[in-house]
Amino acid sequence: MGRKKLTDEELILLQVQEINKYRWLESEKAGCDIGSRKAAQEWIEKHAEDFRRHWQNGGNGDGDGDNQQ
Q: Could you give the maximum distance between any two Cα atoms of the chain, in Å?
């Protein structure tokens, strides 16, 4: 059974959480803070399309909501 349809605000909050997680992971790899702007730009380029597709599907499909590599 699928999840309830999320509001735009809930989707934005989930994206911000994913970007913050991405920032932390990539900063750990780099050995320094990559910054929020770079993290957001990279996450959008690498993960936004899959994220959007996943949640437009009601959270069902190939992913588990975690769009990290």
A: 42
Tokens 């780099």, residue?
30
Q: How does the average pLDDT of the chain come out, rounded?
A: 86
3-state SS, 17-55, equals HHHHHHHHHHHHHHCCCCCHHHHHHHHHHHHHHHHHHHH
Alpha-carbon gap, residue 65 to 13, rounded angstroms: 13
Contacts for 23 with CB less than 8 Å, ≥ 6 apart:
33, 34, 35, 36, 39, 43
pTM of the model: 0.77
